[in-house]
Amino acid sequence: MEKVLGTVKSWDKGFGFIEIKGEPDVFVHYTQIETQNVRRLTEGQQVALMVVQGLRGPQATGVEVINEA
Question: SMART domains annotated for this entry (predicted)?
Answer without folding.
Answer: CSP (SM00357)
